[in-house]
Amino acid sequence: MNIVIVGAGQGGCNIIRSFTNIEDIKIDMVIDRDMDALGIKLAKDQGIRCSKSIDDINPDNTDLILEVTGNKNVSSILLDKFKDKCTILDSKAALLIISLVKKDMETLNKLNNSMETIADTSYTIEQQLRHITGSVDSIHKVSENLVFCTENSNEYIIKTDEIVKYVDKMAKHTKILGLNAAIQAARAGEQGKGFSVVATEIQKLAESNKNFSVEIGRILNQLSDEIKKIKDETAKLNHLSEAQVDASDKVNLAVDRLVKETS
Predict the structure, then answer these.
(1) CB-CB contact of 202 with 174 (8 Å)
(2) Percent of the chain residues topping a pLDDT of 70
(3) How far apart are CA 110 and CA 190, in angstroms?
(4) Average model confidence (pLDDT) across the chain
(5) Which one of 2.30.42.10, 3.90.960.10, 3.40.50.970, 1.10.287.950 gives the CATH number of domain 115-262?
(6) Maximum distance among all alpha carbons in the chain?
(7) Residues 197, 200, 204, CA angle at the centre, nearest 5°?
């Protein structure tokens, strides 16, 4: 359908914007005395012919004339010239179309704004998800370092435990040595009193070493338990990190699909 729009004010602009999106409608010409009118500028931008004169209308190539000036004289002239050759809608009928077009334009603008909002929101979500993914990667690296440190700590505990066992062994030998010294001092009588003092001190040292060895062993056991707890918590952290990465990937796919569907 070929149409001619007479009047290039705001109403004419709305009709041009709306009709240019419909494949079955072609705007053949826009007419207005003011060549600087908004509708004329819009028509020129879209490659639509423009004219100042109604006489330039070709009725043989026009199906419908829309008069949107609201001027009765213009409406009368159009009826006199073209009523038997093509359909003419005066300003009252055109007003209805303009109202519908305006409503359509408002809905379209709201839809476009919604699309822009969705696109902006999708972009923000995508950026945040990338940030989360990067953080999860960092957490995973920290977890790996913790595991590495935990394994090293276990090795040190094993080595320290060997040292404690050696100290405990020395304490036992020292205690035996002290007992032997005490026995020899008793046999020596008065001459062995000084040696007896040394033997007593050796026994005290052996007992102290034993107590010290037991305390170190207790601390090492507690440390081993804490390291085991750290290892367990690290495993949980890795599991949560993997879950976060999986969730982020799913959200990314959903965002990509949303952007594609709304673009």
Answers:
(1) yes
(2) 49
(3) 113
(4) 75
(5) 1.10.287.950
(6) 154
(7) 140
Please state the domain extents for the chain: 2-89, 115-262
The DSSP bridge partners found for residue 49 are 29
Q: Is there a contact between 231 and 147 (Cβ–Cβ < 8 Å)?
A: yes
Q: Calculate the CA dihedral of residues 106, 112, 113, 118 and round it to 10 degrees.
A: 150
Q: 2-89 and 115-262: same fold?
A: no
For residue 34, CA distances in Å to 22, 107, 225, 226 come to 26, 29, 90, 87
pLDDT tens readout for residues 92-138: 776 676 666 666 667 767 766 766 766 676 676 667 667 666 666 66
Q: Rounded mean pLDDT of 158-177?
A: 69
The 3-state secondary structure of the chain reads CEEEEECCCHHHHHHHHHHCCCCCCEEEEEECCCCCCHHHHHHHHCCCEEECCHHHCCHHHCCEEEECCCCHHHHHHHHHHHCCCCEEECHHHHHHHHHHHHHHHHHHHHHHHHHHHHHHHHHHHHHHHHHHHHHHHHHHHHHHHHHHHHHHHHHHHHHHHHHHHHHHHHHHHHHHHHHHHHHHHHHHHHHHHHHHHHHHHHHHHHHHHHHHHHHHHHHHHHHHHHHHHHHHHHHHHHHHHHHHHHHHHHHHHHHHHHHHHHC
Topology given in CATH for the domain delimited by 2-89: Rossmann fold (3.40.50)
CB contact at 8 A, 30 and 12 = yes
